[in-house]
Write a structure and sequence with these properties.
alpha/beta; Rossmann fold; Arc Repressor Mutant, subunit A; 5 domains; 6-stranded parallel sheet; 21 strands
Length: 634
């Protein structure tokens, strides 16, 4: 039998294991049921891949993330290891062939979603396989109090029935004690070997920075801490805007979001991984499965939805164990924005029932029918037909998807895309000659940054609303522009696919998941409140706060976070009168904006902003058309 270190050297070109990896591998090789909690970047996949390579047979890996499955399979294939992932969109005949290959083709890894395990053909063929290990990735999904609970994960125990003598390894990066216990219980571990790495990342300085001018502080910190960075944002539009802003200032940046074509995504990822581009501005989906050890700084421009996701995203910094920094920029409007985005949009049970009924009606599915029927789906048209709010409706569809009522394709293979293929000067010359299309074109340009550089997914319904016209007219104009070689326009009347996984039973269908939905919504409220408490707590070390959240007792301050640094400074309560006098003294000689005043004065940003507010309220100063401050004329 090969030794684990030999396998590590042969396939991964490493000569030593990371902390806990070797102990975990040995426990698995001893046929022990094993629970593994290794925070992000800890090298979880090696813990099941190496023992599976040593043992005879095939390892079944259950994972909820299609992108991560494909990524791991690609890495294994690149090493010459036979692996496959069975994802959605595979025909029955192809599925039949793939499963046969796993039985007879010397494959070492079969990656499956938990939903696939519900299929009789999958269970029947797995029973015929020489299974050497069952690996449950993202194991927190099995817990009703987990960060992303998926009821289909409860079906994983069928693997234990099919192969009762095969041991199981469960892996996760973020789990509180209550979740860990539920994972162990649900997977029927009797005397498991439990390995838990500390959540402490002593090389990362966690900073919460109050900032009314986030872009200014972003530039300031980028200049101080030079090196590879990720800037996390909450919208595709903002990722483009910040990228363009940084590029204009001379920074080397690119951007990444779900609407970018696969080829462009790979090109940008490669540029950033190879340090051709220093800064990646991205939505929160970016980073899963990506191991770039030299990331210096992580920025969050918007508040994260949970401390679990924040810890994972911030943890992508400093994997080389060198000093790294995580900056969470916040201001007075963030709390309301966070609640509006994640709490106020939670759908009621009645709304979920209504959306499900209308979805069935939309595709003319009769009562008791529709199971496994698939339909091309135009989300915006559906919302418009029934006058549904888009955010709440999308959240409802995600709930139905997560609870295996429907399968919602979020690959958006059928998205309508647009790119302007002439220069901006040529475009405006064209608009001078075709004034009837100017309003539509200008609305698109103001809605979608970067549309000259890249083909972007566009929302025709949104443009129609902004221009007070119909989608039909928008399509006609864009098709005409395409014919004139002004744009590259690819139109589709669908943007996703819906597969009904259960026969239609209206309210009965939803009643079965009510308890789960209510519990998950309560969890979401608790998570948002935990983020707000973390941001507001300026008396306890930020590292200690995170450790307590994940159930670790620690009173040792990190000495480098925003709280520790503020406590280490000799803090003098600023004299408001002194600040105002110094502001007025500066403005007496020259008008200045808030950025310039912050650089000029030695007080905290927040104290300067408070003083400016008071001076404005008392009409001692006023703003100029260029947003500078000046002393008000008497």
């Amino acid at each position: 039998m090969s030794h684990p270190i030999n396998i590590l050297e042969r396939y991964w070109n490493h000569t030593s294991f990371r902390p806990l990896q070797e102990e975990i591998i040995n426990a698995v090789l001893d046929n022990e049921d094993t629970f593994v909690l290794l925070p992000t970047g800890g090298g979880k996949s090696i813990c099941f891949q190496i023992p599976a390579l040593i043992k005879e047979g095939i390892c079944i890996v259950v994972s909820p993330l299609v992108a991560l499955m494909k990524d791991q399979v690609k890495h294994l294939k690149d090493k010459g290891i036979k692996a496959m992932a069975i994802t959605s969109g595979i025909s029955y005949a192809e599925l039949d062939t793939l499963l046969d290959n796993c039985i007879y083709g010397n494959y070492k890894f079969l990656y499956l979603s938990p939903e696939r395990l519900q299929q009789d053909i999958v269970q029947h063929r797995i029973q015929q396989m020489n299974v050497n290990l069952i690996a449950v990735d993202e194991a927190h999904c099995i817990s009703q109090w987990g960060n992303d609970f998926r009821p289909a994960y409860k079906n994983i125990t069928v693997l234990r029935e099919l192969h009762p003598t095969v041991n199981v390894i469960a892996l996760t990066a973020t789990a509180k004690p209550k979740v860990i216990q539920e994972i162990i219980t649900e997977l029927d571990f009797i005397t498991p070997k439990i390995f838990k790495a500390s959540f402490s990342r002593p090389n990362i300085a966690y900073n919460v920075v109050y900032s009314e001018d986030k872009l200014y502080n972003l530039e300031r910190f980028l200049n101080i801490h030079k090196g590879a960075s990720i800037i996390y944002v909450r919208s595709r539009k903002l990722s483009v805007e910040i990228h363009e802003h940084l590029n204009k200032l001379g920074y080397s940046s690119t951007f990444f979001h779900g609407g970018i074509p696969t080829k462009d995504k790979q090109e940008r990822l490669n540029q950033w991984m190879n340090n051709q581009k220093e800064i990646m501005v991205a939505t929160t989906a970016f980073g899963m499965g990506i191991d770039k050890p030299d990331v210096k700084t992580i920025f969050h421009i918007n508040l994260p939805e949970s401390l679990e996701s924040y810890y994972q995203e911030a943890g992508r910094a400093g994997r080389n164990n060198e000093d790294a920094y995580a900056f969470l920029l916040t201001n007075t409007s963030d709390e309301e924005r966070l609640k509006r985005q994640f709490i106020n949009t939670l759908p009621s049970i009645e709304f979920i029932k209504q959306v499900y009924r209308k979805l069935c009606n939309y595709f003319q599915i009769s009562y008791g029918e529709g199971e496994f029927s698939s339909h091309q789906f135009n989300f915006n048209a559906f919302c418009k037909t029934y006058d549904f709010k888009t955010t709440q409706t999308f959240n409802t569809l995600q709930i139905l998807d997560r609870n295996s009522i429907i399968k919602l394709s979020q690959q958006f293979n059928y998205t309508t895309t647009l790119q302007f293929i002439i220069s901006s000067n040529s475009l405006f010359a064209y608009l001078d000659r075709h004034k009837h299309v100017a309003l539509i074109v200008k609305s698109i340009l103001r809605t979608y940054g970067g549309i000259f550089e890249h083909a972007l997914a566009i929302n025709l319904s949104l443009i129609a609303t902004k221009t007070a016209t119909s989608e039909k007219q928008i399509i006609a104009v864009l098709q005409h522009l395409d014919k004139d070689d002004i744009v590259d326009f690819k139109y589709s009347n669908t943007d996703s696919e819906v597969v009904f996984l259960q026969p239609r039973e209206d309210d009965k269908t939803i009643n079965r998941i009510v308890t789960i939905v209510e519990q998950q919504q309560e969890l979401k409220r608790l998570q948002v409140n935990a983020v707000l408490k973390y941001v507001e707590n300026n008396s306890v070390c930020k590292q200690v706060q995170l450790l307590h959240y994940f159930g670790e007792d620690s009173t040792k301050n990190c000495g480098k976070c925003s709280v520790c640094l503020s406590h280490s400074e000799v803090i003098e309560v600023p004299d408001v009168k002194t600040i105002r006098e110094q502001i007025l003294s500066i403005l007496a000689t020259k008008n200045m904006n808030s950025r310039q005043l912050v650089e000029e004065l030695s007080f905290k940003d927040t104290d300067i902003f408070d003083a400016l507010k008071l001076l404005l309220e008392h009409q001692i100063i006023e703003t100029t058309p260029s947003n500078s401050y000046k002393i008000k004329s008497r």
